[in-house]
Design a protein that fits this description.
The complex is a heterodimer of chains A (83) and B (409). Chain A is built from 3 helices and no strands. Chain A has 83 residues and is an all-alpha fold. Chain B is an alpha/beta fold. Chain B has 2 domains: 144 residues, P-loop containing nucleotide triphosphate hydrolases (Rossmann fold, 3-Layer(aba) Sandwich); 149 residues, no CATH class. Helix content of chain B is 26%, strand content 23%. In chain B, a hairpin with a 3-residue loop joins strand 5 and strand 6. The chains are: A mainly alpha (83), B alpha/beta (409). Chains A and B meet through helix 1 and helix 2 of A and helix 2, helix 5 and helix 6 of B.
Chain lengths: 83, 409
């Protein structure tokens, strides 16, 4: 089974930067060409993906204990009981 | 042979309805299975001995309710989804153990699928052809229709995954029929066949000024982005957006319109918003929310002794209107709350909210005080639409239980 590798947020940032450069080049000649429009659409898609990655990372960083407890529910600092 | 009918409205997989002596019907959650028997067991009792009996197993009274949510990318669909799934209880999470870049969210009752997964062209394909993701030519509506229809009929499907990071179409994932299926993306109401499958549809309509302000907030921190690049990206996508996405709002049962405030002259910060909930009249199982008196035209400023508001305050409006030739009711909120718990004062003046108890809207909003839009009309109206969808779902399920589906002979 092929398991795609998740790109690191850093890598997405690089991709966004690259895609903006490409779009600016693609639009240098004709700003209404399909090539130009598709290039800016790619920028939008990558910017949205970058935002998602940032949000995910922020959620992870927001509560270090929660993140730790997800992987180690049996440790003393993570145990909770419903009584 | 005894005739009996057994059904329950809520349980997921054990609904049985056994009708007529000659036809036996058993319902399971998934696939249709038909058994034919030619038994002589009943001959002693003299009932049609030797006749064929049909047992139909269908998802009849546990049919999936399908909701469509349309909005442009980066316009708060995910926040809306989290508010919606929270109304039904339980958190929505990506499918466990699958593709880490899956766009699907699953909770106990609800499955949300992203329609980008039905792209027929991947990122390179679109570049070669010079089309955007907004263009219908980049999307496979036949597959979208087939799979949404199958899920609605109670059949699990293998749905492709569009990977937003790599821009490629990944191997498919299994989607099982949930109680509520939400299809969200750019084109849920574009294809008339898919549109007809929807039990309810919502369009998030963000004005250009607000879209620009939101994208600045989202992208300015990103390397390479500048005001010019953000503007250029919005401008480049605009023709396709206006041709293919925007016209879908005429079909929506509810439109949430987000506009710049009118309380501050020439405001273009996009922080204070005027939000309108446009609700279609005469939609099955959906009765619009109103302020004070149904059908009147009202303007209300709640700020005063009972509600603390700082500059620029809050203003509500309500009234009947027409929208793309349809009769609608519009509730509007301009401004923002300073203290979320005072929202209860506003809630108590709104009617037809479909809450289960007094204060449920406020409670839902407080639960997610950290989500974007929690102090203005976007959060308020998204929460209300969530409650309306719960009500709609419960009515649809109750109606199905009242009329056991006839066995297919």
């Amino acid at each position: 089974r092929i398991q795609p590798v998740r790109a690191a947020p850093d890598k997405i940032s690089e991709k966004v930067e690259e895609s903006i450069k490409n779009a600016q080049e693609a639009c240098a000649g004709d700003p209404t060409s399909g090539e130009c429009v598709a290039a800016w659409d790619e920028v939008e898609e990558l910017s949205a993906a970058a935002k998602d990655a940032r949000d995910k990372q922020k959620e992870k960083d927001s509560d270090p204990l929660e993140t730790f407890c997800k992987d180690n529910p049996e440790t003393i600092e993570c145990k909770t009981f419903d009584e | 042979m005894a005739a009996c009918t057994v059904y329950s409205t809520q349980s997921l997989s054990t609904n049985c309805s056994i009708s007529t002596p000659s036809k036996t019907q058993l319902s399971f959650h998934q696939k249709q299975v038909v058994f034919y028997t030619t038994s002589r067991r009943n001959s002693k009792r003299g009932i049609n001995s030797g006749r064929s009996y049909v047992i139909t197993c269908a998802a009849s009274d546990q049919q999936t309710v399908v909701i469509g949510l349309a909005a442009d990318s980066g316009c708060g669909k995910s926040t809306f989804m989290r508010r919606l799934t929270s109304v039904f209880g339980g958190a929505a999470e990506p499918p466990k153990g699958g593709n880490p870049d899956s766009n699907t969210l699953i909770s106990d009752t609800t499955t949300v699928i992203c329609l980008d997964d039905y792209h027929s062209l991947d990122r390179t394909g679109r570049k070669e052809k010079g089309v955007t993701a907004l263009d219908p030519r980049a999307n496979d509506f036949d597959l979208m229709y087939d799979q949404v229809k199958a899920i609605k009929d109670g059949i699990a499907v293998q749905k492709p995954i569009y990977n937003h990071v790599t821009g490629l179409l990944d191997p498919p994932e299994l989607i099982k029929p949930p109680k509520i299926l939400v299809i969200e993306g750019l084109h849920p109401m574009f294809d008339s066949r898919v549109r007809d499958l929807l039990d309810f549809s919502i369009y998030l309509d963000i004005s250009n000024e607000v879209k620009f302000a939101w994208k600045i907030q989202r992208d300015m921190a990103e390397r390479g982005h500048s005001l010019e690049s953000i503007k250029a990206s919005i401008e480049a996508r605009k023709p396709d957006f206006e041709a293919y996405i925007d016209p879908q709002k005429q079909y929506a049962d509810a439109v949430i319109e987000v506009l710049p405030t009118q309380l501050i002259p020439d405001d273009n910060e996009g922080k204070i918003l005027r939000v309108r909930l446009i609700q279609k009249e005469g939609v099955n199982f959906f009765s619009p929310v109103y302020l004070f008196d149904e059908g009147s035209t009202i303007s209300w400023i709640p700020c005063g002794r009972k509600l603390t508001c700082s500059y620029p305050g809050i203003k509500f409006s309500y009234g009947p209107d027409t929208y793309y030739g349809n009769e609608v009711s519009i509730v509007e909120m301009d401004g923002q709350f300073d203290r979320l718990d005072e929202l209860i004062y506003v809630e108590s003046h709104l009617s037809n909210l479909s809450t289960k108890f007094y204060g449920e809207v406020t409670q839902q909003m407080l639960k997610h005080a950290d989500f974007p839009g929690s102090n203005n009309g976007t959060g308020l109206f998204q929460t209300i639409v969530g409650l309306k969808i719960r009500d709609l779902y419960e009515q649809i399920v109750a109606t199905r239980a009242e009329t056991p589906v006839a066995a297919k002979a």
